[in-house]
Amino acid sequence: MHEKSISGLHKLSKAEKINWLAKNFSADEGTTTESLHSFWHEDAEIQRILDGFSENTLSNFVFPYGIAPNFLVDGQMYAVPMVIEESSVVAAAASAAKFWLPKGGFKTTVLGTTKLGQLHFSWKGHSAKLEALMPELCRTLLSDVQHITSNMEKRGGGISSIELQNMCHLEADYYQLKVGFETCDSMGANFINSVLEEFGRSLQHFISAQPSFSASEREVEVIMAILSNYTPNCIVRAEVSCPVEQLDDACINLDGLGFAEKFAKAVRIAEIDPYRATTHNKGIYNGVDAVVIATGNDFRATEACGHTYAARDGQYRSLSHCRVENGIFKFWLDLPIALGTVGGLTKLHPLANLSLEILGQPSAPELMSIIAATGLAQNFAAVRSLVTTGIQKGHMKMHLMNILNHLGGDADACKAAAEYFQDRVVSFSAVREFLDRREEGKTKPAVNAM
Ligand code: MEV
Asked: Which CATH class is domain 115-228?
């Protein structure tokens, strides 16, 4: 055993875990312990709930919780809660929301809500024999999971399809059951995985009891049962559109048509070039993830899904698209995203719960719409900056405050710096120089002093 290794860390109390960590992995035991304690929630009950979300919890990692107002989505006004550490993101979302507000806001269409799961298995035999049994197998599977699905069915969901996928051309004896689910307002991960694991047992039982099968055909190896985070049919489209003349105020150097065409060209580049598409989509996920996190949803799942969808034809492309036709600018985003507004962290995490309250307790499809609108707004703001002023102008102004905080600038210095850098380029060294000069000025005796 290495001297710093440990087994059974999870059995220690929180204080003991912190002691162990501070002793073995910190430069200064006292500071580490103090720092971890300082982020504990003052309400012990809330802290207990937060601790319960994960394992070996020592403290809380705090991110800013902001709000982007003026989001008109399908005729309804929202103030959108966003959890994000990157400066400018909330400001950009808010500015795009305000820009589109008098033009009718964001229109969305939920194109589908089907989630997917797979039962992966190996079976040696003639595939036609398996295919012929599918109708009977489906009836058996559905009946064997009734105890899991009945509640979901009462809420209007359940299993929507079961397909046998023959994958033997890629891997010997490999098959899947590809299963479609409707999970109403829940993300449905636990429901889907429970059904699939039961399907595994049911399949084994069914195959082993086939009288027409040989001894070897009666054996099936269940490899794994798990939902797929790729849900191309759980997808929402968000769009904005307006006559190009209404874009006259989008940029000082271009008229509406000029701006629209340059903007569309930038989006086209993200459609055809994976390097640009990656950054373009990252900008979309600045907005999407911030709301996904604020509402207690799984941002890793939504990102993974979106990026797979972006590469669905074999090349990674932008998730958003733009056309300028017959004098109309149209910009839209197709976002595959599986979300929940009940279950999981949504009600347990106090701020996720609050976010859903602020959003008017949306259904899962309504939350899909709000999040897609936020992603589109974020994308609009980023591309608008890129094709007009450049991204650094707005970004570095916000970043200035981070640099000042990093360098220990006080409130007065921040105020003075904001003024000084209004028409100057912000950089780490320029800010340091500015602060040094201020300090020198303070320590130098005034010329007229007697
Ligand atoms: C920065 O977080 C996001 C952008 O790079 C997105 C984009 O380039 O479209 C500004």
From this structure: alpha beta
Q: Which helix (H) or strand (E) covers residue 266, if one does?
A: helix 256-272
Domain map (residue ranges) of the chain: 9-51, 65-107+237-389, 115-228, 396-437
Judge if the beta carbon of residue 279 lies within 6 A of ligand 1.
yes
Q: Identify the CA nearest to 16 among candidates 47, 50, 56.
A: 56
Buried b (16+ CB within 10 A) or exposed e, 282-299: ebbbbbbbbbbbbbbbbe
Domain 65-107+237-389 has CATH 3.30.565.10: no
Backbone angles phi, psi at 176, to 5 degrees: -135, 150
Predicted pLDDT of residue 445: 58
Instruction: Give residue 382 CA to ligand 1 midpoint distance, Å.
Output: 6
* pLDDT tens, residue by residue, 77-131: 999 999 999 999 999 999 999 999 999 999 999 999 999 999 999 999 999 999 9
- Strand order across the beta sheet in which 158-166 lies: 158-166, 174-182, 115-123, 220-228
Give the global pTM.
0.90
Separation of CA 261 and ligand 1 centre (Å): 19
DSSP run (H or E) holding 68: strand 65-73
Name the residue of 265, 271, 386 to mutate for ligand 1: max ligand atoms within 8 A of Cβ: 386
Nearest atom in ligand 1 to the alpha carbon of residue 385 is 10
Residues in the chain: 450
Catalytic residue check, 23 = no
Per-residue buried b or exposed e for 109-127, using 16+ beta carbons within 10 Å of the residue's own CB: ebeebbbbbbbbbbbebee
Q: At what angle do helices 89-100 and 274-294 cross, to 10 degrees?
A: 90
Q: Which of 90, 280, 318 to mutate to test the pocket of ligand 1 (most atoms within 8 A of CB)?
A: 280
Determine whether the shortest distance from the Cβ of 381 to ligand 1 is under 6 A.
Answer: no
Give nearest CA residue, ligand 1 atom 4: 283
User: pLDDT tens digits for 177-206?
Assistant: 999 999 999 999 999 999 999 999 999 999
Catalytic residue, chosen from 14, 178, 282, 330, is 282
Measured from the Cβ of residue 135, the count of other Cβ atoms closer than 10 Å reads 9
Alpha-carbon gap, residue 309 to 189, rounded angstroms = 19
Question: Residue 276: CB within 6 Å of ligand 1?
Answer: no
